[in-house]
Amino acid sequence: MMIPRHLKILDLTRRDSKVRVEYLAKALNVTLQTIRRDLVFLAEQGLIERVHGGATLPSGLRNIGYEQRSQLNDTAKSRIGDACASEVKNGSTVFLGIGTTCESVARALIHRTGLMVMTNNLNAIPILSAGGKNTVMVTGGRLRESDAGLVGPAAVTSLRQFKFDLAIIGCSALDENGDLFDYDLDEVMVSQAVIETSRKTVLVADNAKFDRTAPARIASLSDVSLFCTDEPPHQLHPATVGAGPNLLIAPK
Which among 57, 54, 37, 60 has a CA at the least distance from the CA of 46? Predict the structure, then answer.
């Protein structure tokens, strides 16, 4: 099972292209033996390549697999889902984006009634439709088989026909300047379009995103209305925090 330390190892490897066991042990404050076991596990998952004394990541542009992501910080994501859902009013129109944190929001939304929810997240559809209290719509788009997301120009075209009361989106990384990033430009197009076509946008992201990197910029925190997370974003510059959206820390 993936644990948060594995994600940090992947991010360090992605950032530096090649990492050594000794460096990882010092950076993560664990023993050399622990790091070696971690590298064996990650290599077995196909996420890194073992080399003498350390590891490399063949592609710096890949996200980790959906199954691994779904296991990371699941308790924190559940808390974020509940906190975000508390901001959704019955009877409103909502867009729900791709990602395992957005799926946690979907689980919390089943307690709302009269919603019209459009999503490009096929994993969220059976969750949202449970109980029959809300109307669920699906965007068009190209199916991204790795995580059952619908992305690309057709997804953008379909969502531009609506003006959402609330858009709920995720990201893969958040840097110190408050910029949001992802790995797939086709997904970025969808997130950017829905920010433009919604009265209010909520970013949902757990603390693992604070120490990650990704290549494609979505937007800035200043472009969203509310940032719902599980811990204060420690890496943000103070000026960024002051100029950013309202911050909602999910209660424990």
Answer: 57
Task: Please tell me the predicted confidence (pLDDT) of residue 186.
Answer: 93
Query: pTM for the whole thing?
Result: 0.76
Instruction: Tell me how far apart the alpha carbons of residues 163 and 172 are, in angstroms, rounded to a whole number.
Output: 25
- The two structure tokens encoding residue 89: 């009013």
**CATH number of the domain at 69-249, please?**
3.40.50.1360
Polymer length in residues for the chain = 252
Nearest to 179 by CA among 119, 120, 243: 243
Contact (CB, 8 A) for 108 and 85:
yes
Tens-digit pLDDT profile for residues 61-73? 455 555 555 556 6
User: What's the CA gap between 117 and 164, in Å, rounded?
Assistant: 9
Least confident of 5-9, 85-89, 159-163, 236-240: 236-240
Measured distance CA(69)–CA(72) in Å, rounded:
5
Domains 4-58 and 69-249 share a fold: no
Fold of 4-58: Arc Repressor Mutant, subunit A (1.10.10)
21-28 and 32-44 helices, crossing angle to 10°: 110
Q: Which residues of 182-212 are buried (b: 16+ CB within 10 A; e: fewer)?
A: bbbebbbbbbbbbbebbebbbbbbbbbbbbb
Map out the domains of the chain as residue ranges. 4-58, 69-249
